Amino acid sequence: MARHEPTDRIGRIDDPDLTRWEPPGLEPGHRGRRRVARQAGTLSASLTPGGGHQRPLPEDVLRQASQRLQVVALLGAALWAISTVFYHLIDRAFAAGDASWLALKPSDAIVGLGIVTSLAFYRYLRVPNRNPRTALDVGLVYMVATALIAGVILHWDPIPNSPTIPNVSWIGVLVLLFAAVVPTDPRKMALAGTLAAAMSPLGMLIARARGTWLFESPLTAL
Q1: Which residues are CB-neighbours of 181 under 8 A, at least 6 positions away?
Q2: CA nearest 141: which of 117, 119, 123?
Q3: φ, ψ for residue 51 (rounded to 5)?
Q4: Around 222, how many Cα atoms within 13 Å sit in the side-chain half-sphere?
Q5: Of 3, 44, 112, 204, whose CB count within 10 A is highest?
Q6: At a CB cut-off of 8 Å and minimum separation 6, what does 145 contact?
C-alpha cells in the first residue's frame, strides 16, 4: 500500500501558500509527523490594492451617494443663479453705480452655462435604473467642468488696483465637498481633484490673454 503524506484539511501539501511546522529539536532528515498550516497574511498586505482584498462598495452605498450628488447639482444651480443676481445688484448697481445694471454681459452667459450644466447633471442622475458607479464617475467630470466655469468667471472682470497674490479659491472648497460626498476610487479622486485645482490658474491665463488681468510671467498663475 502506498504511503501518503499527512495533510491538513485546509489545503494540499504542495500548496505554495502552505508551510510545514516541525516540532522543536527534530533532527534534520527525520521523517516524523508534520503539521501543515497556511501562512498568515500581514495587515499591510490586506489593506493595499495589490493585496487582493479590495472590495467594491455595496450598491446601496453607491445609490445613496448618487442621491447626494442630486442635492449637490441642485445646490450648484441655485448658487450660480444667486451669484449672478448679487453681481447685478451689489457689484454693479450699488457699488459701481452702473445705470445699466440690468443689462446682460458675457459673464452672465458663463454663469448660465454653469446653471445648465448643473441641471443637466441632475436630470442625468434622475434617470431610472442608472448605474450608480457610472453616475459617480460622471460626477467627477461634473466637478471638473464646474471648476473650469468657476475658474473663468472668477477672473473674468478686472479688479482695479488689485495685486496678484496667492489666495484661497472656491475651487478648493468644491474639491473637498466632492471628496466627502463621492465614495470613489482614491486614484480617480486624486486625478479629478488635480484637474479641478488647475482650473483656477487656467482662468488666470485666459484673463491674461484677454487683457483683463495683467501680470508679467505666466508662471504667476501657479
Answers
A1: 65, 68, 69, 72
A2: 117
A3: -75, -10
A4: 4
A5: 204
A6: 117
